[in-house]
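Lab notes, practical 5.
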Amino acid sequence: MVTLIIIFSTLIILILALTFSRSSSQVMSSDTAPIANLGQDELLSCFLQTSMAQASLTQASVTWEKKDHGIVYRYTNGAPDLANQIAQFKGRAEVFPLGIITGNASLLLRNVVGDDDGVYTCTIGSSNGGGTVNINLRTAAFSAPRFTFSNDTLDARASRWFPKPNVTWSDRNERLLKGITSLTQDSAGIFSVDSTLQSANSSTTYNCKIENSLVAAVSEVTVTDFGVSGKTYFTFNAASSLLASTYLSIMTSVLSICHLT
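Output from the prediction step:
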């Protein structure tokens, strides 16, 4: 008898789950806490996830708002509606009409500035469903360091960092090494970094880490008789209240421009 009850309960749950999945939709984002690089473009992800087998959305509308500010971008009736758009975003924000009909309402924000920092809400409405998602955008400046080696000194220079970064050096066994770092701040508040490791040896691998509260650039650098080679990984701290203080680490690898002087 107990076995039959369990079986019937399981069947009921499966039927309800299937029914719900066939009719439900949800607005989501692939990254609810992105970090944009100042002066570059940033794509804020927003899409309608639905299990309904629809070729395209109909009667779709999209509204992007910035908390405590107003309309960033609005798309309705098959065309942009920018009458109430915040002046800050004029000519800098756009969505993609061909993407909207497939449920993709992502916002392209061009030439990011510090004032773009804040919480954005993406709202999608359509005959197939809709909803909202909040995105907490933070802004920073970061760049991969350039390495040179001369007279037993390994030098790392990075042109753009904000907030103020720290620099640490270590060997391949992660033992800390003493480096000398200088920071120069320009009129826009952006820091340039110049850090040196003296008494560096050829045929040796070193680690250089430039980091602030939002971004870390970890470089693994090998000094050889032919020059300096290595790679840099960027790690982004995506902890936010919107994610309940969880961590999302996104790593990208870029080739470091290195040479021997």
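Observations recorded by the TA: The helical segments are 2-23, 97-100. The first helix runs from residue 2 to 23.
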